[in-house]
Amino acid sequence: MTMILTKTQLIGKIYKAFEGVVLEDGVGLWEGQALDDRLENTAAYERLRAKDERLDWQKIPIVRLYECSSSISFHDAKGMRFHLPLYLLFALYVFMDEEEELHEDKDFTLWPPEIQFALTHNLESDYSKSRFSLLNTEQIACIVHFLEYTKGERERHCKQYRVKQNHLFNKNHEELKEAIAFWKVKALVP
């Protein structure tokens, strides 16, 4: 059984596991938006692609995750490896100060990316296998720890607030357990 990490431990592992990862020629946030908008082979596509940060995922402002929230569905393996730490940290509420500033603007109506869905659904598909194919064991272990942390937080929330575990909670709980088992095999985590 894997030890569930604290939030601080998990954040440290994510930074360490993805230190120095670059985008190379992978699909970035803006390029993903261009693909979502079906702009391939156009000048607009090239302009958007040129806006992508390629060297340091830590330089990407959180507002970009909102502006390009659908890009998570368009990352190739290099793009997923480059952006995954940012998505994980975002889901762990590491950037709450930046988010609060965004939400103070009453005109801000963008949706955040949904990393948990990407890490728990259709994992056996060729598409998922391909876009997660460049992750090393340490990076995959971060996924396992993230999902375990998420599962534990949901369980604690239900217990603390005496939330009745309904069908939706149980379905989500099972999806998390299945995904954790899937990623543990990939990472060779006991």
Task: Give an overview of the whole structure.
There is one protein chain. The chain is mostly helical and 190 residues long. It has a domain at 7-134. It contains 10 helices and no strands. Helix 1 packs antiparallel against helix 9 (137-160), helix 2 (29-36) packs antiparallel against helix 3 (43-50) and helix 9 (137-160) packs antiparallel against helix 10. The longest helix has 24 residues, at 137-160. The mean pLDDT is 85.
Distance between the termini: 6 Å
In percent, how much strand structure appears in the residues? Answer: under 5%
Uncertain parts: none
Percentage of helical residues?
55-70%
Count up the helices: 10
Q: Taking all residues together, what is the mean pLDDT?
A: 85
What string gives the helices and strands in order? HHHHHHHHHH
Oligomer: single chain
Structural class: mainly alpha
Largest sheet: none
Which tags fit this structure?
0% strand; 190 residues; DUF6714; mainly alpha; globular
Summarize the model shown.
The chain has 190 residues and is mostly helical. It has 10 helices and no strands.
Chart the SSEs and their pairings:
Layout: H1 7-17, H2 29-36, H3 43-50, H4 62-67, H5 77-91, H6 96-104, H7 115-120, H8 126-131, H9 137-160, H10 167-187
Helix pairs in contact: 1-9, 2-3, 9-10
